[in-house]
């Protein structure tokens, strides 16, 4: 039976949430935010879309690293699309309500895609470890079949874990309030609105965050500790510089994503508030997906070359069609 939200003041059933978001901002501020977030969203979609295209079509990028990068960009496209378009609409319309089903669906997608990205980032760190520390066995260890299995594993655990987190978030009826102090349905805030004691659900989400955030992080730390030891043992300074550049890109992405996600799901709710939650929510829902392709592209000569070739082919095709 679907949980219901009951308003104790009049006994009626509440069937929607109200996303407060930036509702209290002035009209000029909302217009400025709309223009800013629309530009960031467009940039993130364009950059991630370009990476997906070139990693899946350019034969020169036929390696596990770019295979994983293409799927990371696809996850970023899914992740950013679950929250930002709705926020843009709410910045220009007065009606900020979302149905129970819409809130439930949005939260599941955020959970599923977010967990899948955590796991994929760990697999990307392992890929760099094998490439740098075991170069002679790299092609055998990271075969195409293995890469497909790793990406499938990330998606599988993300979607399955999303079901568990969804249940913990909506296991109780809602009877306190239906105002969500954020621009999307974020689990800890929604749970705090439920009837009874929300502590059990919050503790379970905290425990789950330890598994899905800290476990991949342990694999990332171990991988890069061994990579660092291998790099420092080399005599070639040019080889060190190239390896450091590649690893620095991945570590920057990891730090952005994990820092914001850990603050949102592993901190006591007593330390949170709208002024603290929204900036971190914006960081991992729009800033990180936008920065990922920029970070990887600017620090990778092969990616920049592939982008130039792709844009060149597009320009040539347009010229021939005229």
Automatic annotation (TrEMBL):
Membrane topology: Multi-pass membrane protein
Residue ranges of every copy of the G-protein coupled receptors family 1 profile domain listed in the record: 47-296
InterPro entries: GPCR_Rhodpsn (IPR000276), GPCR_Rhodpsn_7TM (IPR017452), Olfact_rcpt (IPR000725)
Classification via Gene3D superfamilies: Rhodopsin 7-helix transmembrane proteins
Keyword field contains Transmembrane helix: yes
Compartment(s) where it occurs, according to its Swiss-Prot or TrEMBL record: Cell membrane
Keywords: Cell membrane, G-protein coupled receptor, Membrane, Olfaction, Receptor, Sensory transduction, Transducer, Transmembrane, Transmembrane helix
Transmembrane annotation, as ranges: 31-54, 66-88, 108-126, 146-164, 204-227, 248-267, 279-298
Record function comment: Putative odorant or sperm cell receptor.
Family assignment from sequence similarity: Belongs to the G-protein coupled receptor 1 family.
Protein known as: Olfactory receptor
Species the sequence originates in: Acinonyx jubatus (Cheetah)
């Amino acid at each position: 039976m679907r949980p219901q939200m009951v308003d104790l003041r009049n006994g009626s059933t509440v069937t929607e949430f109200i996303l407060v978001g930036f509702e209290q901002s002035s009209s000029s501020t909302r217009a400025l935010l709309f223009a800013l977030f629309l530009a960031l969203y467009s940039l993130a979609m364009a950059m991630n879309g370009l990476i997906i295209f070139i990693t899946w079509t350019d034969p020169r990028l036929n390696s596990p690293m770019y295979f994983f990068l293409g799927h990371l960009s696809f996850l970023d496209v899914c992740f950013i699309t679950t929250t930002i378009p709705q926020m843009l609409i709410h910045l220009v319309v007065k009606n900020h309500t979302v149905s129970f089903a819409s809130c439930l669906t949005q939260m599941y997608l955020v959970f599923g895609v977010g967990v899948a990205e955590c796991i994929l980032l760990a697999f990307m760190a392992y890929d760099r470890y094998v490439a740098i520390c075991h170069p002679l066995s790299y092609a055998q260890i990271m075969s195409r079949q293995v890469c497909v299995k790793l990406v499938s594993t990330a998606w599988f655990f993300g979607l399955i874990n999303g079901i568990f987190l969804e249940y913990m978030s909506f296991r109780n009826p809602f009877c306190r309030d239906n105002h969500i102090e954020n621009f999307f349905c974020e689990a800890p805030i929604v749970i705090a609105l439920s009837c009874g004691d929300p502590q059990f659900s919050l503790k379970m989400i905290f425990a789950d965050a330890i598994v899905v955030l800290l476990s991949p992080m342990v694999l990332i730390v171990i991988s890069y500790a061994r990579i660092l030891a291998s790099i420092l043992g080399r005599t070639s300074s040019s080889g060190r510089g190239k390896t450091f550049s590649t690893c620095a890109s991945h570590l920057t992405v990891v730090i952005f994503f994990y820092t914001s996600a850990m603050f949102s799901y592993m901190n006591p709710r007593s330390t949170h508030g709208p002024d603290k939650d929204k900036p971190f929510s914006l960081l991992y829902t729009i800033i990180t997906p936008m920065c990922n392709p920029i970070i990887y592209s600017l620090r990778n000569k092969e990616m920049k070359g592939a982008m130039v070739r792709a844009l060149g082919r597009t320009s040539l095709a347009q010229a021939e069609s005229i």
